[in-house]
Specification:
Length: 291
């Protein structure tokens, strides 16, 4: 006995006729929906391997006190790691780092007294009824002069936490921004033999290093250099351990020594004709970006 399947639509009839007219080849599996999704997620094979990031080259800056053992700044380049000094600019990351740093500077020592902390008796000022005046309790009421403060500030900690990787990204973004603005330099050393402010100020003026933050890789700043530079206006010297994103953005120019440069993945190389052409090309690109 045949089972009735009901009336079929024209589309179902057409599918049946096509399947009967064109048989499916044997040995070929029908693709399923799950397999097609897996193939869509697979990366497309590229004919060539991805090229490595090229380092960023800048000229070596002249030191405070040049010596015979120092390399010639005119014939020496500094290779900067592109993962550190060619990072995409992220204004949101810089904002988070600056806000977190400024929050840590707040003292949070503001303090006011509530009605329970103000000196005085807790006696009721006047009877509740019969005077025709407003109801009042004790003299420490926030509505009265000399009373407590309602919802006033109390000592608190305003510091906020930020993930370590976000702060590291902020350092890379800030350094990359200084490199793109051509306000970043590396000198071989920051040695200064005498604690004389006048001679060092004259040297900085000759080099054109005003409004500059100098960063040294030493654990402690040399005494002679610290005494000579601390009274010079618009100039600051700090160590790489205490460097913050806020300082990188605050100062117009950043100058590192060779030891601090190694911590930020820089390398001093001898300049060659190929390097000269490459650095010229890099600065042309930077000029186009800044324009």
């Amino acid at each position: 006995m045949l089972k009735s399947v009901g009336r079929r639509s024209p589309r179902q009839i057409l599918r049946t006729r096509v399947s009967q007219a064109v048989p499916r080849p044997t040995g070929v599996a029908r693709p399923t929906r799950s397999s097609s999704r897996v193939q869509a997620r697979l990366p497309a094979s590229s004919p060539t391997a991805p090229s490595l990031l090229e380092p960023v080259y800048i000229s070596l800056s002249a030191p405070f006190k040049p010596t015979r053992t120092d390399p010639d700044p005119e014939e020496t380049l500094v290779a900067l790691d592109p993962t550190v000094f060619n990072h995409p600019i992220r204004r949101d990351i810089l904002h988070l780092c600056v806000v977190q740093y400024r929050d840590s500077l707040r003292q949070g020592s503001a303090n006011t007294k509530t009605r329970g902390e103000v000196r005085g008796s807790g006696r009721k000022i006047r009877p509740q009824k019969g005077t025709g005046k407003a109801r009042l309790g004790d003299a420490q009421s926030p509505m009265l002069r000399g009373g407590g403060i309602a919802f006033g500030p109390k000592p608190r900690d305003f510091s906020t936490k930020l993930p370590r990787k976000v702060i590291q990204m902020g350092m890379r973004v800030a350094l990359s921004a200084k490199v793109k603005e051509q306000q970043f330099g590396v000198m071989f050393s920051m040695d200064w033999p005498e604690p004389k402010t006048k001679t060092l100020a004259k040297r900085l003026e000759d080099l054109g290093l005003d409004q500059t933050l100098f960063v040294t890789g030493e654990e402690e700043i040399p005494v002679t250099l610290e005494r000579a530079i601390r009274n010079i206006p618009k100039v600051k010297l700090t160590t790489s351990n205490t460097l913050t994103v806020h300082e990188l953005l605050k100062w117009r120019r950043i100058m590192l020594d060779a030891k601090a440069g190694r911590l930020f993945r820089t390398d001093i190389v001898t300049q060659s004709p190929y390097c000269r052409a490459l650095i010229h090309f890099v600065f042309l690109i930077l000029d186009q970006i800044l324009i």
